[in-house]
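Box 3.1 A note on notation
Throughout this textbook, protein chains are presented in two layers. The first layer is the amino acid sequence; the second is a token string describing backbone geometry. Keep the layers aligned when reading.
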Amino acid sequence: MAFTLDYIKKTVIGDMRCNVISCSVDSASGNIDTGLSKIYGHSLTPISMTANNLVLKRNVGSGATALPGILNINGATSGDVFCLVVYGV
């Protein structure tokens, strides 16, 4: 598994769902299943990171295939830890 996930909070804000996820990186790239059907927006807060070329793509899988609710991450470093907040439905 590329990421170890801990869902800290799942809530609703207005008409959107919001999930707060703590992530630990095991490999440089992979997909994160956010628990949403479609991601409208996201934010990442580093906790302990050495990666400086991180790329996040929402609603896309590793092979540039459309995968609603998936956040694809490339350029991470094993051992990085960050918090994600994702908004969607």
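Residues 3-88 form a domain with the Immunoglobulin-like fold (CATH 2.60.40). The CA atoms of residues 10 and 87 lie 10 Å apart.
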